[in-house]
Design brief:
The chain is of the alpha+beta class and 52 residues long. It has one helix at 3-17, and strands spanning 24-26, 32-33, 48-50. Bound molecules: zinc ion.
């Protein structure tokens, strides 16, 4: 499994964890963020992705 696919699976879980309302979320700490940050404002990891 590629790293990209692994991230996609984690992202699916993250989307289910988040209650919605925000457009972006962090894969590392699974918290919602308001903008497409290059680095997560919560944990500092570059894992912010858009929620669709
Ligand atoms: Zn984070």
């Amino acid at each position: 499994m590629s790293l990209f696919e692994k991230a996609g699976e984690q992202f699916q879980e993250t989307k289910e964890t988040l209650l919605g309302g925000d457009d972006y979320g962090c894969l590392s700490c699974e918290r919602a963020v308001e903008e497409d940050y290059e680095h997560c404002p919560h944990c500092g990891e570059p894992t912010v992705v858009p929620l669709e």
